[in-house]
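User: Can you help me understand a structure? I only have the sequence.
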Amino acid sequence: MNILSSLLEIIYPPRCHICMEFMDVHPVGRGDICDECFSNLIPLAHPYCSICGEPFKSKVEEDHLCEKCIRRKPFYDELRSPYLYEQDLMTAVQAIKYGGKSYIVKSMGPLLADFAKERITSMEDMIIMPVPLHKKKLRQRGFNQSALMVKEISPVLDIEADYFSLIRIRDTETQAGLNLEQRRKNVKGAFDLRGERNLKGKTVILVDDVATTGNTINECAKVLKKAGCEKVMGLTLARTPAY
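Assistant: Let's start by predicting it. Here is the structure, written out as tokens:
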């Protein structure tokens, strides 16, 4: 198989999923992302809010609660992201969502899985769920990028994936371009649970591609907490800079 794989790479050399340039070999442990594009990903660095994970503009202080979380504590327990939503990563995410290039998730998924492994110490009573799309938008796009990321992450973490219990019951506007209050109202009451899944005492990891205000994750967490979840952790590939 190693010989066959080597021959196939000679005939069909891999392309970087971000810049689309040919690579000599498949990178190890990060999907098809070339060295240059990987080095251009910007890690989300401290300090950030200890609940919502929003990065602070000032780099002087340690992690602490932001004003929004002090005024109104989110339903989720924490929201974390490995990278800032800028430059090459922004290009990649937009190519997935708006360009139909779902295959890029195969390179983004391992990055998020590695980050999650570092943060999660116990997998007991844990379930991983994608933030759902409304059925209308799912038909238009053809896939849910969050569900595809869960498919990549779940086996790495050895956590059960639940793709169907959490649903979006209202077709909301795209959050891009809305202000803070508009974003909150846009997703309010947009999610629900179906079926008879027992979530009491469970920890749920909610996966999405990008977090800006955290309102979408928060509305999902509200539904899950009402159903008895003990803890809800939001996990997104990227986070926008201070909003």
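Now, to help you interpret it: DSSP finds nine helices and eight strands in the chain. The two ends are 49 Å apart (CA to CA). Let me know which part you'd like to focus on.
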